[in-house]
Design goal:
By secondary structure, the protein is mainly alpha-helical. It contains 5 helices and 2 strands.
Amino acid sequence: MSRIPISDYMPSDFFSRQALELSFRLLRNNHPLLAHAIKQTIDNTTAVSYEELQSAYTGEMLLNTDVLTSLKAHTIGKIVSALTDIGEAALRQNDLPPNHMALMRTLIEDWVQLTEWVLQHSASDHNDKTAYH
């Protein structure tokens, strides 16, 4: 099965505010602390101006560095895990329409891409004593 790489639709140094908002909604009932962290990120992070994006992407985007500063790598990992659990449960129950499952998959892929960005950028920071080398 062929898939379009994530980088084809989302700039690599930016994260979608819409992805944060959807994640907040999905996590708020069963993972309120993660949802609260996401809500704080939404409320306290400024969207990048369209001119700065220099891209065809028209949604509100946040800098990955700002998202990482707000959420921290550990929390991002927990969000990926919680969303994956929700997606797996939905697959087992087979109770969501295909378009909702596709949206869930895309959302998880967005978070995974952010995780990969974090790993790439923390590994290159040799002054960061917490980075893995």
